[in-house]
Amino acid sequence: MFFSNAVKSSGPLGAGLVQLSHLHTSPNSQAPVPALPEKGGKTRHGIIPEEIFQLLYPKTGVTGPYMLGAGLLTYILSKEIYIINHETFAAACMGTVIIYGVRKFGPDVAAFADKLNEEKVQKAQEVKDLAMTSLAQAVLDEKKEQWRAEGRQMLFDAKRNNVAMLLETNRRERVHMVTNEVKKRLDYQIALQTLHRRMEQEHMVNWVEKNVVTSITPQQEKTSIAKCITDLKLLAKVQQAKATV
């Protein structure tokens, strides 16, 4: 913007530069360049384009281009704009040789040039195909990497779930270990209390038995033994009576 204002303020030269800059930045300058034709257009007499004849036909008729050429040549010679000298004959000879060479060797040279051109085009096409193949493979690799990047999130989720499950397993193992330890200690306390109770009971039984034994007199012992013998005899008689029956 600053450059444009400075050029506009520099006078006619600046205005011309501004117009030139606008010309180079016009939309037409950014248009794609048309492709060059592979073969030249039609000509007459070897050098005159067919378009000139087609342009003059509507206004001058069929003989118009020839009359224009003949009249122009007559005018140039009559006004001595061009003077015929030895160079003219040398140019005519050279032109004849060139035309003969073109007509004689032109097709072979054109075929050789076309062959070279086809080889160059084929090499360029191979390079293009190779580049397209590599680029297509690069696109496929990029899509695969994108797919892997999308699956990486799933992989991270799976790893996160695995870590969570591992932590939960460790927590449950610790809870189970604590439960077992507490159960063992409770079982120990129960066994200890049971042992105390059993020892107390045994001690009480022994003490009662000892006191009972010590409290029995010899007379009571004899009486008890006699009573037992009597009971045994009575039981023996009952058994014999049952056996005889």
TrEMBL record:
GO terms for cellular component: mitochondrial inner membrane; proton-transporting ATP synthase complex. Keywords: Acetylation, CF(0), Hydrogen ion transport, Ion transport, Membrane, Mitochondrion, Mitochondrion inner membrane, Transit peptide, Transport. GO terms for molecular function: proton-transporting ATP synthase activity, rotational mechanism. It holds the Pfam family Mt_ATP-synt_B. Its main location: mitochondrion. Belongs to the eukaryotic ATPase B chain family. This is ATP synthase subunit b. It comes from Oncorhynchus tshawytscha (Chinook salmon). The lineage of its organism: Eukaryota, Metazoa, Chordata, Craniata, Vertebrata. The gene is ATP5PB.
